[in-house]
Design a protein that fits this description.
Elements (H helix, E strand, L loop, with lengths): L4 H9 L7 E4 L12 E3 L8 E6 L5 E6 L3 E7 L7 H8 L1 H20 L2 H27 L25
Antiparallel strand pairs: 1-5, 2-3, 3-4, 4-5
Helix pairs in contact: 2-3, 3-4
């Protein structure tokens, strides 16, 4: 039996976030045949990466290791938001990037090794704080409506379908 990527996605969605499934290559369709697009990912020994964009801005990420595939669901599709993908799905790469940017900025502004190290530390700290702030913002409940506000509530637009 050859598995379709839609079946593998359904299996992953029934598991906790960050679960990875290893599927022998001969037991599933090629990712391109399943509607996935070729992509890039953090090098982990894979030959290629493939992604399938999901309607809720997540994506199925498949790594091709030759004799098997590894599949998981990313919380944010990098095609939708590369920065948020790093923050949510690859936090070490995000922190490394912010530290490196801080180091470069420190070196450019201070023109010394000490300034570069200070920039590295500041960049890593700001990266970590911003990552935590983003996570906390997502967890906060929506503000309660103000009873004194006479404005109409935010409602989605409605469609009227006329019949013949």
């Amino acid at each position: 039996m050859v598995h379709r990527w839609s079946e593998i996605l359904a299996m992953l969605e029934a598991e906790p976030y960050a679960t990875t499934l290893r599927v022998p290559r001969h037991l599933c369709e090629h990712p391109l045949d399943g509607g996935l697009r070729q992509s890039i990912g953090m090098p982990q020994g894979q030959r290629r990466d493939y992604r399938l964009k999901l309607p809720d801005r997540r994506c199925l990420h498949v790594r091709d290791f030759g004799v098997y595939y590894e599949a998981h669901v990313d919380e944010v599709d990098p095609g939708h938001s590369p920065i948020m993908h790093l923050v949510k799905d690859v936090p070490t790469a995000y922190l490394t990037s912010t530290a490196a940017l801080g180091g470069i900025l420190g070196l450019l502004l201070g023109r010394s090794r000490r300034a570069m190290v200070a920039g590295l530390v500041a960049g890593a700290a700001l990266g970590n704080l911003s990552r935590k702030a983003i996570a906390r913002r997502k967890a906060l409940p929506a503000p309660a409506a103000d009873p004194d506000d006479d404005a109409a509530p935010d409602t989605p637009p409605t469609s009227v379908v006329a019949s013949g």
